[in-house]
Structures are given as structure tokens and as C-alpha cells.
Amino acid sequence: MVSVDPWKAPAVLIPAPPKTASQTLTALVEDLMPSDLDRPAMDGGVHQSLKIDAVRRVERWRFYSGLKRPPQAALAYGHYLPTRLNLKRIARRYQAAVCCIPIRPLGQLVCSLIAHCDRGSGPIDPKLINRIEGLSHFQDLNPSERFELLAVRYLPLIQNLIDGWIDRCADRNIPCVVIPFTSITTRQAELQNALISVLPVSQEQQPKATTASIQRNPTTTTRTNLGDIDPTVRQRIRSLAELLFQDERPSIQVLHNYLKQDLSDDSTPMELPLLWTPHQGRFGAS
Fold it and tell me: Domain span at residue 171?
């Protein structure tokens, strides 16, 4: 039997693509977690790294002696990539218990990126790679040009965050759930009740799902609509998405179809589950 270091608390990972209601999802998850909760921060930078310090000798002795108790759980939210460095840093203090990945159709996501840049608060947030830095002409571009530029620059990062974490979780036997945007924004009570069964909280600790609507960091500027985007631009971005999001596994293909569905005029809206478990299928009623 493998012994577990006494300081290693179970951790919920939320490695989120931008503009996927990820802050709202984090609030919904945090609402179900114990109050004694670690919230590791991000370093940011080109590697999109988590900031988790190693447990040093004196601190280790305090844990083993019982002078210091670990938190009941941890919640690691951010736009951090599935790199070996991040996995190593997580393992310094935590045991990854479940990974929750919020996703959103790519056309809607890029339109929301445009609105975020227009409101003057940076590309996404201060800890995300700024892929429009130095583009002094960005505000002079029309909506279709902005859409194409942001899609070309951010879609590879988004693909890495989604597919990369799904594969890392499969390799390391970490339970993984992928959550559609509408489940986070319009089906919150259902979603919380479903998440309770996968979060690292004992039955005695589990609170009931909240009935109050939660919303974090909403877009306050006028949105660019997909109808405002030149169809030829959308088709070029669809081709880029087809190149990036490829997988032979049927359960992953369904996720990819959801992501790409609004980049074509002839696509049929999908019936969405409450959430997906990528290596098992869908969960919850449509």
C-alpha cells in the first residue's frame, strides 16, 4: 500500500479556456467545498504555470508531528497548461482528485474575446499570455478582422487546454468532466448536484446545491455577434479548428463537434448533456 504524505489535500483542478464562464464555474464548485480550502495562484508567463511551493524540511516535520494540519481540500483555477511542470507543482502539496474543464462553442468564445479586448481590460486577464500585445492597430480593425486575428492567436492555446488536459487526466487516472457553457450559466442547481458526487468532499460535509444564481465577470460591453462576421472568415477559422481539433475517439469527437458547431452556417444545434466524462460519455439529461 502506497503511503500518502500527510500534507497532500485532494485538489479540484479547473484548467479553463478563456471566456467559458470559468469564474462562475469556480464559484459554483467553491460553494460545495469545505471552508478550509487552499486556492493556489498562477505565475502566468509564457508557460501558464501554477505557483505552488515545495514543502520544505521544517514544514514537513510540522505536518508529520501534527503541529500543522493540511487544508481539507484545494481548488486550483486558472488558464494553466497540462505541462509536466504544472503536474509536478500540483503533486508538491496536493492529490489531483478531479479535473473540471469548462468549454464553449468557438465562435461565441472568440466574439466574447473581442468584447473583452474592447472594454480595455487586457486580452483575458493579467495571468494569461497577451497575444495582442504590440498590435497597436487592433482597435482599427473591423469585427471580422478582429475575429480572425484572435481566433488564429488563441485557438491553439484553447485546444491545448482542452485536449491536453483530457489526455493528461487519462494518462494519470484523474477523473475528468467537461462542462458546456450553458450548464454553467443556465443549469446551475443541476450541475452542482451532479458535481457533488465527484468532488473530494465526504458525505457528512456535502452541502446542498445553492438555489441562487451565480454569475462572475460578465461582459458589459456591446457584443460582436457571429452574424456580423464575414462567412469566408468563419469558414477559414472552421478550417483551422478542423486542423487543431482532431481525434479518432467517438467521445472526444462529440466534444469537438460541440466546439466547432457555430463556425458553419449549415450546422445543426446539438442536444447537450449536463456534462461529459470524456472517456465514458455523456452525463445528465439534455
Answer: 9-283
- The one-letter code for the residue type at 188 is Q
Q: What is the pLDDT of residue 134?
A: 65
Asked if 93 and 52 touch (Cβ cutoff 8 Å), the reply is yes
Asked if residue 1 belongs to a domain, the reply is: no
Inside any domain, residue 184: yes
133 vs 100: which has the higher pLDDT:
100
**Taking the model in full, what pTM does it have?**
0.87
Contact (Cβ atoms closer than 8 angstroms) between residue 74 and residue 94: yes
The pLDDT value given to residue 286? 46
* Lowest mean per-residue pLDDT among 17-26, 38-47, 233-242: 38-47
How many Å apart are CA 100 and CA 200, to the nearest integer? Answer: 12
The x, y and z cell numbers of residue 54, run together, are 515545495
The DSSP 8-state label assigned to residue 127 in this structure reads T
CATH number of residue 131's parent domain: 3.40.50
The total number of structural domains that make up the chain: 1
